[in-house]
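Notebook, p. 212. Picked up where the previous page left off. The plan for this session was modest: take the two constructs that came back from the sequencing core last week, fold each one, and keep the raw output in the notebook itself so nobody has to go hunting through shared drives later. Recording the first one now, exactly as returned: residue sequence, then the structure token string.
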Amino acid sequence: MQAIVAVDSHWGIGNKNELLVRIPNDQKMFRQETTGKVVILGRKTIETFPNGMPLKNRTNIILTRNPAYKAEGAIVVHNTEELQEAIKPFDTDLIYVIGGESIYKLLLPLCDTVHVTKIDHTYEADAFFPDLDADPEWEVYEESDEQTYFDLTYTFMKYVRRS
């Protein structure tokens, strides 16, 4: 299983249920990486999407504790046992955890690869991704050249779990 995330310099990922910044090249990479695959996300994350609708051309699995929650066009599960059942038919290399904070923290132990867009800026954030640089279980596998979007610099990173 993989995760994909954009983080600021303090591993912030969001504030008040919104992304910290929208970078078109990051969104393009996200689409290329996840289209045709399975994405796992939380209820709060899907509610930030246009009209609260699942992402197109992907199998969306929403993990929520709310037993009454329904999402048209998505699979809804309520705990990790139901999630394990829901992902059984899929190749684990084609499954991406896409947020938010509590979903990342819950499922990161099941991931072996994390795609990180690392933004060289600090935003006001109230949601964070675990700091992989400070975690000895993870190492940088690939790093792109520095990219720019207006005055922001960012890098595409790929972390892999050490064996």
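Okay, moving on. Second construct, recorded in the same format:
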Amino acid sequence: MPSMLNSKVKGYVSAVFATLFMASLGIFVKNIESAPTVMTFFRLFLSAFFILLLVVFKGRISELLVFPDKSIFLSGLSLTSSIIFYIMAIQKTSMSIAVFLLYLGPVFASLAAFIFLKEGLSGLDIASLILSVFGILFMLKFDFRFSGIDALGILYGVLSGFSYGMIIFSNRMIKPNVSLNSRSFYQFLVGSVLVLPFALAQCNILSIKHDILWLVMMAFICGFLGITLMFNAIKMLPAVEYSVLSYFEMFFATLFGVLLFREDMDVFKVTGGLLILLSGLLQVFKNNIKRMFL
């Protein structure tokens, strides 16, 4: 019993620190001058390199010899576009709005599964979709003129959420016997190859020389550390518990924005964020809710 309790505690600590590291992406974005495609390439390629070092160090290089199926290309593309749009959202609007919209992803994934995988769409699924739409409306302050830099940031944020949903959807198509290290390594590798031509087109050597330390730290902290701790948490915790803890990323991103960049948090942003958070929690707990009331 004590060992099981210790495992739970380690899982909780890993999950919280994973969300902390991944939420810090906005800090790096605010301090890097390079184009979003350049940032995305370094984040993906260096993360793949760090994972390669990890499996070599642990003597698990054989895990990378198992190549995931063709859906890895869809997941790599989705990963790339999610990061690019998320970075662009952070650049155009606040960190809090960007991360809230990113977490529309699970809702989009549910829709994709309903349409393409013929999975059922329950009343709770529909309710979560309605809540997320109202969340966006509150963040827009019900202003439909769609003008200005903030509106563009919201558009990028929605696109990042859609891409994140496609990451979830495409990963469900990968065979379950493929290891987490293999999935992550090839998604990072495929994503970096896909974004490389665009990164080269927008590459500025002077900017990269100025940003190189930030770029390496971003890849190490937001990619390698965050994902490694995420793997550890998923290994030690039930999926539902990790899913709930993953929403701490919103809290940390908002906290970073308020403390480091003096971003304002009005009642519309808070209400919109809470509605999107609630929509995600409905997805996580929908089976428990069904058992309670049906």
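Notes on construct two before I forget. Residues 205-236 form the longest helix (32 residues).
Flagging for discussion at group meeting.
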